[in-house]
Protein 1
Amino acid sequence: MVSAKGSPGVTTSALALASAWPRTALLVEADPFGGDVRAGLAAGQWPPAAGLAEAVADLRSMNLDEALTLRVHQPAQWAPPVLAGLGCVGQAGALPWGRIGAELGRVRGADVIADCGRYLPADGVLALLRECGLVVLVTGSSLRAVRSAARLSPLLGRDLAVQAGHPRLSVLVVAPEDPYPGPEIARACELPLLGELPDDPRAARVWSDGDPHWRRFGRSSLQRAARRVADRIADGVGPGGSLARDADGVGVA
Ligand SMILES: Nc1ncnc2c1ncn2[C@@H]1O[C@H](COP(=O)(O)OP(=O)(O)OP(=O)(O)O)[C@@H](O)[C@H]1O
Ligand SMILES: [Mg+2]
């Protein structure tokens, strides 16, 4: 999952989707600007050595499955397992993103959702995105957000060698109708519309800022919509990350 300039919501949406995933989903924070969950969802309570940088260092002496058993942390029973992101801006340039992506594609027993943050063609995360079965551009619905997303989508399509309209690259709209509706945004981006997540600040803050979880959190509008979107994606992406069906069969248009 990636975003354009001016479109917050990737981390929240990725966590909501991973928590609502019909199979086990591992959330990997692959944001080159640094991870959010240590300070956000976990409100500062995270095991110090549990993260992506440590897992990458482990790859010198073990395979990724072994590294993940050491470095993945599930902060609460209702939250997904997470490989927390980088602590320092600048670390991203040194990471072997392509290898990380390829290894994550071989993870056993879980689908992987990567929060890749804001997309910059020059940073190395493109190599990870190239390994993904599905790339999702996350955008808000303001004119500013939609304009940025519409500028970015052809660039992403080119960098990923995905033809316009192919479901491997799609758009997820956060807080639609403020003012633009999802289908109009998808048309502006020339991408299939994967789905929409509603404006639900209370539930969103559980993921983004570690606000208290409540008993009926799963029935919040954000979580209900996340389940619908997760089911749709999980249906189209087979274990291992490949699109299980072709452009006509994935059903995300
Ligand atoms: N569906 C939503 N409804 C309401 N508020 C939301 C929703 N999704 C995200 N937010 C809010 O938007 C803000 C930014 O969210 P988030 O941290 O997920 O964005 P981001 O794109 O990951 O940002 P960054 O570029 O800093 O990594 C947070 O305050 C979060 O609570
Ligand atoms: Mg983020």
Protein 2
Amino acid sequence: MWVKKIVREDLNLVEKYRYGKPIQELQRELGFEKIVKLCSNESPWPLPDAVCEAIVRGSKEVQRYPEPGSYFLRKIIATKWGVSPKEVIIGAGTEGILHSLLHAIINPGEEIVLPTPTYPLYKLAAIAASAKCIEINAKDEDYWMVEDLISNCSEKTKALVICNPNNPTGKMIPRSELIKLAVELESKGVLLIVDEAYAEYVDDPAYLAGVELFRQVGRVVVIRTFSKIYGLAALRVAYAIAPKVVVDAYDKTHPVFEVNSIAQKAAAAALAEEDHVREVRIKTIAERKKLLESLRELGMYTISSCANFLLIKHPKSDLIFELLLKEGVIVRKGSDLGLPGHLRVSVGLPEENEKFLASLKKVLTSVEL
Ligand SMILES: Cc1ncc(COP(=O)(O)O)c(C=O)c1O
């Protein structure tokens, strides 16, 4: 009886997050020294010296608690986007921000609308905050119809979470659609939460940064992370631009010392390295294009992407995933991301992409036998 009663029943509605396979795990299993990890969309490029130095500086202060308000980082981000520091949240990754944010806004019985397939963490964070999830599936691999999303918001809907560009499809919502969505949600009193983890990789002029919506429409929360183009995934730091009332509520739900001092210093230093970020962006976009062309030459059905990963459709995707592991290459199973029959591959360093393509070629010969 105790076993049945002790944990929350609604947690049965969701599976725990299936993360990309860690390098160390595959090394333990297969004894490889060199692994190519293309499963978590991290930045593979080395960090600039100034960021490494900031990490060392921060590491000398770890006997003290970090500054809970992340004063300097918050100020830098406010200046970067032309908003007030009172409209900025600094949190322990997008993940940390989402959990505390949803805890700050959800009342019992309220709903979160989630266009799917998308980053599975939204559902986990929503259920953890006791929200009811309304999932709206995209038609094929097309983006969701904005009208569909709007019509599924009821008087119980508190927020709609959208990923732009989306993980795992790599597609973005064009400017006009996003404005339509934001304006309609504003009129319905629904908070629009836009996760822009991959915004820096978009090279389509039809993209609209969420902060513009925040300025124009207001009832919007935009989340950006330091885990992707800034290369700080292990330090767990992200930020959000949000209405002050939301920031004030967030301040009551988040773990007080959630952003450590190394992360605060490294993130501030990373933001200052604009040339480095520009360079990583250009190199990633060039590699993405090369990888897409090579995959299509191999006959793989691959969707063009605005982010630092590509989505491949293949009926034997799980088998290909397993065989690639044996070659020392980790990609991501679509089934982990709500899209069975697909593989997601991050854009790596040129030599990593080459190793992936060579291994894939080899694997495909046995898969197609
Ligand atoms: C859509 C999306 N948002 C955010 C993140 C990054 O999260 P975090 O900032 O918690 O590292 C990822 C990483 O895979 C992602 O795919």
